[in-house]
Design a protein that fits this description.
Elements (H helix, E strand, L loop, with lengths): L3 H18 L5 H7 L4 H26 L5 H18 L6 H28 L7 H29 L2 H19 L2 H6 L1
């Protein structure tokens, strides 16, 4: 039987992965649509990874003394949700770079705090591998499904429809994750 905290974190990340995964492989197509080229795609992705990598180390250390990791996690999810909607307004590679940097900041806020909360959510050390395997397996399956859905949305509708769908799903995941605050009070 999984504890409520683990369920919230697991289900929240699965929902989040559905929204986030829709854009992955068609990112380059979008960059080309806004006037970008292969180098712009490389820069956008690199900026995201570098910002995330640099800040995740700082946030990880900072979160060890942070009294409310849950709040830090939700702030990160919220930033990413807002910036996902921001893709609608991207009209040049420079705009794309700005969004990617912001997404890196949001990711750096939620990633280490989510991991710390998930790691501490169950005291049964005999289940650690199972729980991490469950989370990673579910996430990969959902990302695979999301890629197909994202491609279909862009093919039959538009990138804006994709960004709205992604943003709504991420908003649902963020709101769902806020249920973790109720557990702290109980």
């Amino acid at each position: 039987m999984l504890k409520k905290k683990i369920k919230i974190l697991l289900y929240g990340t699965v929902i989040w992965s559905l929204g986030e995964g829709m854009f992955g492989p068609i990112f380059a197509v979008f960059a080309k649509k806004i006037g970008g080229d292969i180098l712009d795609v490389a820069w956008a992705w690199a900026l995201y990874l570098i910002v995330t990598g640099a800040l995740v180390m700082i946030v990880g250390k900072m979160s060890d003394t942070w009294r409310n990791k849950e709040k830090l996690m939700i702030i990160g999810f919220s930033i990413n949700t807002i910036l996902t909607f921001g893709y609608i307004f991207v009209s040049s590679p420079m705009h794309l770079f700005a969004i990617q940097i912001g997404l890196g900041v949001g990711n750096a806020l939620f990633e280490p705090t989510w991991d710390a909360l998930f790691d501490r959510a169950d005291e049964n050390e005999k289940r650690e591998g199972f729980l991490w395997g469950l989370m990673l397996g579910e996430k990969e399956i959902i990302l695979g499904i999301a890629v197909i859905i994202g491609g279909m949305i862009v093919t039959y509708f538009s990138f804006n429809a994709l960004f709205i769908t992604m943003g709504i799903i991420q908003l649902i995941a963020t709101v769902y994750q806020t249920r973790i605050f109720k557990l702290k009070k109980a």
